[in-house]
Amino acid sequence: MVKTASSIPLLILLLTFAIAMADSSSSSAPLNSESAVHIVYTEKPQQNEEPEAYHIRTLASVLGSEEAAKDALVYSYKTAASGFSAKLTPQQVAEISKQPGVLQVVPSRTLQLHSGPGIGKLH
Q: Which of 52, 85, 99, 113 could tie 74 with a disulfide, CB 3.0–4.6 Å?
């Protein structure tokens, strides 16, 4: 009986914590919570423009400001491909797809390598 009585305060504490976390996560969720990272393939920028500046300018034309574009930009591809990855909502994906110089917009995917006994060993 003593074990049950001492575990009740712990249970109440855990429930209170869970309720507080659920409440705070629902109230602090951003309005554009449906945003996801997309890769935006673009034409190469003009000779006199830095790739990242071109990417930010392209993003800003849809997001409304350079600051919003910098916040959404995840990575700027400059060597093997021309483009960038950014956090975009479905509506923003549709808008940026229509911008001059944008070739293709695709969702970013994370692939996981599978390994196990004998896989990847060079003998």
A: 85
